[in-house]
Amino acid sequence: MKYDVLILGGGPAGLAAALYAKRAGVSVLVLERSIYGGQVTNTPTVENYPGILNISGVDLAMALYEQVTGLGIEVRLEEPVSYQLDAPAKAVATARGLYEAKAVIVANGVKRRTLGCPGEERLAGRGVSYCATCDGAFFQGAEVAIVGGGNTALEDALFLSNNCAAVHLIHRRDQFRGSSILAEAVKKRQNIHLHLNSVVEEITGEEKVAGARLRDVTTGEETRLELSGVFVAVGLAPDNAAFAGQLALDGAGYIQAGEDCRTNLAGVFAAGDTRTKEVRQIITAAADGAVAALGAANYVNSLE
Questions:
Q1: 257: which of 183, 275, 282, 285 fits an S-S bond (Cβ 3.0–4.6 Å)?
Q2: Taking the model in full, what pTM does it have?
């Protein structure tokens, strides 16, 4: 099947790109491999999107999706398995078929980092989770841990504390990297217990999570916690290995693209968290989507 613009990713960047590309008069297909909305669906409350006082990440994602599909834009849940982006006719293959396009917008976002400690991979889905808003309800009245020090970890700790008996917030530094407002809210919550300057050495349990072994990075002292769940929120990483050799990547693995979202390949654009940039927020992802879509539409029109 052939399209003018093929968009890889159905998060805020990809859906905004679809909206602007459609309005520019070109044919559009969005391929999303996992869940519409991307990382925003893991955010309990969005309070910094202009014009919206507050909204859940899930509701914002659904609103974006409904707006796009309401315009007749085709959105498919399919995972790409191969890419040919360095030719005039771009091609992306999935298990269901081959899609060709004159221009491609890569808006695949980022993936969550892991701890890499013993027990994490073995107990994933059995008490180890990377999404508090997705799995928190399963731990009502239980004692859990959240690992991380950024906004996501702080938000997750507050979210979990509403239903869990106790939440242990583990961070390797002595100060949080997240906003001061969230940090103060966490410190005031009585059932959130802070473990600063600490790292998780091991997640224990046979069939499910039973606890965690911590190490103080300053003293070397080890402590053990009895837990029913461990939520990991230690940041995000690019997921662009499949593009290596075609798209130029920076040292951290992000796609090299400036504010115009243009990559090193003609007709290929990068939008949102996947590209090199200073600020990664919902609003900057959506803005990238608009810029990339207009650039792609202009590129398509230049070929005619």
A1: 275
A2: 0.78
In the residue annotation, 117 being an active-site residue is answered as no
CA distance 160 to 182: 14
- Which residues, in sequence order, are CB contacts of 266 under 8 Å at separation 6+? 299
**Is 134 annotated as catalytic?**
yes
| 184-242: pLDDT as tens digits | 999 999 999 999 999 999 999 999 999 999 999 999 999 999 999 999 999 888 999 99
Catalytic pick among 131, 174, 261, 273: 131
Of the residues 59, 86, 117, 135, only one is catalytic, namely: 135
At residue 112, the pLDDT reads: 84
| 131 catalytic residue (yes or no) | yes
Over the range 18-39, which residues count as b (16 or more CB within 10 Å of their CB) and which as e? Answer: bbbbbebebbbbbbbbeebbbb
Identified catalytic residue from 59, 134, 216, 239: 134
Q: Which residues are registered as beta bridge partners of 247? A: 244
pLDDT digits (tens, 9 = 90+) for 144-153: 999 999 998 9
H/E stretch holding 143 reads strand 143-147
Number of C-alpha atoms within 13 angstroms, CB side, residue 116?
A: 2
* Contacting residues for 7 by C-beta, under 8 A, at least 6 apart: 14, 17, 18, 21, 28, 29, 30, 31, 104, 105, 107
Contact criterion met (CB below 8 Å) for 36 and 109: no
- Name the helix (H) or strand (E) containing 295: helix 282-303
Q: Comparing C-alpha atoms, which of 226, 228, 229 is closest to residue 214?
A: 226
* Residues, the chain: 304
